[in-house]
Write a structure and sequence with these properties.
The chain is of the alpha/beta class. The chain contains 24 helices and 20 strands. The strands form four sheets. Strands 1, 2, 3, 5, 6 and 7 form a six-stranded antiparallel β-sheet that branches. It has a six-stranded mixed β-sheet with strand order 8-13-14-4-15-16, with helices on both faces.
């Protein structure tokens, strides 16, 4: 069963949110501070809550809008602050039909609400077709469906009792049906299959330390959200209360280390900010004045930094790191729970932009795959620009209260600003550089790669994959800056490097610092098997000299070449001056059909080898 629509009414800042769509996987509620996003999440949470330390009931005095509380006081108990529409999965339909027969479910969508001051769920409309259900029950009792089954339950009961000498089965079924509410039974089946709702916000983060006895002896509803998360962490460790005695140190320590390692490993699949951290759990025994021989065990949560070889209390780490780890601990408690609705209130609030991207990737990969996730945000980095259909805008309209809209572009400019920002970042990447970026030194490289890719394709060899966007960066020294800028945007970058004697220390440092994977740096010397190489050195010297002559750069004969180093430098030495390297490349692109036909097989093979290596670096 999954949520398809939601509507919040008469709850805190919400008079009527309006009915809004909920995505099957991920829904983002986007709005300014104080727009009412949290109120919408809270109302959804209380529909069918999992314990979280947050309130789970609708209390009129606390939750009903104060502006109309006195006026509506007599009717508040009938107000439904949350109504959800659910789409029934095949398993839900099968569960009802197993009891009431094939075709007994009237609709594959049901509306369910919760009222103030009551835990009862209120269902709108019938769940089953009564005539179909009673007919199934008649047949199941071994009786003639055509004779006894009528349109309504009451008519069927009358038919069962109408015989002067009714068979025992008919009498028994009539007695049984008089005591039953078939609609309530069907709703009961579906009620047990309603998804549970989990809620997590900044108040749910783990404290640095917490009393074990309080976690064990206090009713869950009285724990704070942070303590409730600590209880989830303790349950993940699987350490029973008796194991906290000092005599059981090894067993206790092993369980705590296992839990910490599990969450740390999961965390660092997605936390890319600092890979040198790990979480450590231990028990501290604190003296208790009124029982000197019975110290109180406290759970200590510490973070080790391997780089600086120091541990700090969890409360002293960055809030973003604490949030991420705390959520994993809370999520672990319900890992075996079936499909549920997970609510995250401002999950990226304390995270760096890159960490927000990591978090969004985690939500998409690990949560939204099996559950429905609804989160609030006002950050452009928590928006998926290619999935704006998942966004809903939240606005506090004067004299109307908080409203949620499926039409995101109908909202006010300040509300949709994060959407525009996210869209702008994505468009700049896609339109200017593309997702797969091949950096080269200058425009001549672009021309030669383009011409030779076409020629290699014509010869039946491997051309450059069209997914690559070739961008000249204006010189070898500018490549590190270019890579640093693009690398921050999660683009796939590869570099064709013209190599001169001595190499380039900046580019070497760039690889050593991890800004570019080593295999994404492609020196042309790997193809030419020489100590120096420009892209022109992939051609045969005689052919390139002919290109220089026909493009009006100048006439150079082989005999005038120095016989060593890069062909361009040798030609410049022979001509006595530098020339525009793009001039011959441009000529080749525009008009030199005859010259293209003179390219020999060895050159074709070298370019094909280069293109094959470049294409191997494409993502997916």
């Amino acid at each position: 069963m999954r949520v398809t629509k939601a509507q919040v009414v008469k709850y805190k800042s919400v008079t009527d949110s309006g009915e809004f769509l909920v995505d099957d996987h991920l829904t983002a509620l986007v709005g300014k501070n104080e727009a009412g996003k949290t109120a919408v999440l809270e109302a959804i949470y209380r529909f069918n809550p999992l314990p979280s330390g947050h309130p789970t009931t609708f209390e009129p005095l606390r939750d009903y809008p104060r502006s109309s509380y006195s006026r509506d006081k007599g009717t508040i108990s009938s107000v439904e602050p949350i109504e959800l529409t659910f789409a029934l999965d095949p398993g839900d339909v099968a569960a009802v039909e197993a009891k009431f027969g094939k075709g007994s479910v009237t609709d594959t969508h049901v509306k369910v609400a919760r009222r103030y001051g009551s835990a009862t769920k209120w269902w709108s409309g019938p769940v089953i077709a009564e005539a179909t259900a009673v007919g199934h029950l008649v047949e199941k009792a071994g009786l003639d469906r055509g004779k006894y089954a009528k349109r309504t339950l009451a008519e069927t009961i009358n038919a069962l009792r109408a015989e002067e000498e009714p068979p025992t089965a008919a009498t028994t079924l009539a007695d049984d049906l008089e005591e039953r509410d078939l609609g309530a039974e069907a709703r009961g089946i579906l009620a047990r299959r309603l998804p549970k709702v989990q809620y997590f916000d900044e108040y749910s983060v783990l404290p640095g330390s917490v009393s074990i006895e309080r976690l064990q002896n206090t009713d869950e509803d009285e724990l704070t959200p942070g303590e409730r998360t600590a209880l989830a962490l303790l349950r993940l460790a699987g350490v029973a209360s008796e194991e906290f005695a000092e005599a059981d140190y090894e067993a206790r320590k092993a369980s705590l280390e296992a839990a910490a390692n599990q969450l740390t490993d999961e965390l660092f699949e997605y936390w890319t900010q600092n890979q040198d951290l790990s979480v450590e759990l231990d028990i501290e025994s604190r003296p208790v004045p009124h029982r000197p021989n019975q110290p109180e065990p406290w759970l200590q949560i510490r973070v080790r930094n391997a780089t600086h070889r120091v541990t700090l209390n969890m409360a002293e780490r960055s809030k973003g790191f604490i949030w991420f780890f705390s959520f994993l601990a809370a999520f672990s408690e319900y890992a075996e729970e079936a499909r549920r609705v997970i609510l995250l209130d401002e999950p990226g609030l304390n995270l760096h932009a890159k960490a927000q991207s990591d978090l969004l990737r985690y939500i998409d990969d690990r949560l939204a795959r099996d559950h429905q996730v609804i989160y609030t945000t006002h950050s452009l980095f928590m928006i998926q620009p290619r999935h704006l259909e998942r966004c809903r805008t939240v606005e506090d309209i004067p004299r109307q209260g908080t409203q949620v809209s499926n039409d995101v572009w109908a909202a006010r400019p300040e509300t949709v600003f994060p959407l525009l920002g996210a869209l702008g970042v994505d468009m700049s990447q896609a339109l200017i550089v593309g997702p797969d970026q091949l950096a080269v030194e200058g425009p001549a490289d672009v021309a030669y790669l383009t011409v030779m890719s076409d020629l290699v394709r014509e010869k039946g060899k491997t051309p450059l994959d069209p997914r690559w966007t070739i961008t000249p960066v204006g010189g070898l020294d500018k490549i590190p800056t270019f890579i640093a800028l693009l690398g921050a945007s999660d683009l796939n970058v590869a570099v064709i490097m013209d190599v001169a004697a001595g190499g380039n220390q900046k580019i070497t440092n760039m690889v050593q610092r991890g800004l570019l994977p080593k295999d994404h740096l492609i020196p042309l010397t790997d193809i030419t098997e020489t100590s120096e190489a420009d892209i022109e050195d992939l051609f045969e010297p005689g052919w390139y000299l002919k290109l220089l002559k026909e493009s009006k750069v100048g006439a150079v004969t082989k005999s005038k070449l120095t016989g060593g180093g890069r062909i361009v430098k040798q030609a410049e030495a022979a001509l006595g001056s530098r020339f525009d390297h793009y001039q011959p490349a441009s000529y080749l692109m525009r008009s030199a059909t005859a010259l293209r036909n003179e390219v020999d097989d060895a050159v074709i093979d070298r370019f094909s080898q280069l293109f094959t290596r470049i294409n191997s670096l494409l993502r997916g």
